[in-house]
Amino acid sequence: MAFSGSRLVASAAAKLLGQSRQGFTAVTGVSRSLLTFSAAEGHSLRSACFSRSFTRSMWVLCSKRPDTDLLSGGVVKLTDVNKTCSCCGLHTQGDKELANFLSKEIETEKDNLQEAPKVKDFEISNKGAEVTLTRNFDGEIVTIDFNVNLSVDDESMDEEAEQPQMVSRPRFTVELKKSGGSSLSLNCSFTGDEGTAEGEEEVDVFQIDEVTLHEGEGEWQESSYIAGADNMDGTLYDLLMTTLEERGVDNEFAAKLVTLSTSHEHRQYIKFLEDLKSFVSK
Question: How far apart are the two ends of the chain, measured CA to CA in Å?
């Protein structure tokens, strides 16, 4: 992880305490020289003390690197703090540490990656963070869309497990499209219930939040009316849940969707780490 300004100053202070009295005197002289130079150029004391270049210089000064020398007269060679590599661009110490950390993190995440499950009767496709499941039900096209961004929580953590089990429970939209082009869209979300225990009454693990109708091949428009489930008649709500169940969108499907979403989100996270490593390594 890259050093923040506060971490750099703290690190510098800790290392300064371990240096010899001579090294400490030299560092002090350098700090005063830097501040004096900054003032002569018209910069404020605050700017000199808290600028990124100053804190990075102090960090390099305290580290035992071959390209940092204390020269006679309290002058420090700081020209190589940020080196430009001819083969791969600008590299800082923070970049190198971040790249090394990412390499280990990617390996660990890949070791814990789970296979994405198949969902009965549905074809699965994805584009980035978006996932789509599609099936044909007696000439009616059933489409479920969801996005894994910001969908992970650890509420299902096993108390006996050493680490929390990260689970993705995204909001999802079920669209039922008739052959004539009209569509019924139902926005759904997970309730947080774990399902039904043996001998207990069945509990829905997901709920309908919003319902809307739209005509033609176009997508939903801002002008389309949306019916909120909170203000909906209870019988109508139950019948809509039955409509979904008849098309295969039930508790069993919801459990598969959670597993699918969790696996896909994990793959997207690993790709993010790989892309980040590629970026800092350029």
Answer: 17
- Cα separation, 278 vs 106, in Å, equals 12
* Span 52-79, pLDDT tens digits: 333 333 433 444 444 444 444 444 444 4
Rounded Cα distance, 176 and 164, in Å: 36
pLDDT in tens, 238-257: 999 999 999 999 999 999 99
Q: pTM for the whole thing?
A: 0.66
